[in-house]
Amino acid sequence: QVQLVESGGGLVQTGGSLRLSCAVSGRIFSRAAMSWYRQAPGNQRELVAAITKDGRTNYGDSVKGRFTISTDNAKNTVYLQMDSLKPEDTGVYFCNAGAVPGTGAWGQGTQVTVSS
After folding, report:
1. N or C, which end of the chain has less CB nearby within 10 Å?
2. Is 71 helix (H, G, I), strand (E, B) or coil?
3. How far apart are CA 32 and CA 105, in angstroms?
4. Phi–psi pair at 60, nearest 5 degrees
5. DSSP character for 73?
């Protein structure tokens, strides 16, 4: 059974940084695309960043140049480094592991709040 556990969320001021972590249990990590999604109140869940098993990355337009997705294969962990945070980055951030981003397994989410 695949489990994804996010951590690292919290409250930060505009312009600050946070690093989210997602620990993945199960054998899916080496085969799946890993991605981060977020959902703000009243909005649909949207793709923030994704990384394929061969290291190709893709970012949502609103976070390009500010966020960085990476993996540590030895730790079965995917990270999201978030810099220059804005109030509109506020939301619940979800980790995802699947053959295609947005499919497969999801974590429980971690709250990120950026104050103005």
Report:
1. N
2. strand
3. 10
4. -65, 150
5. G
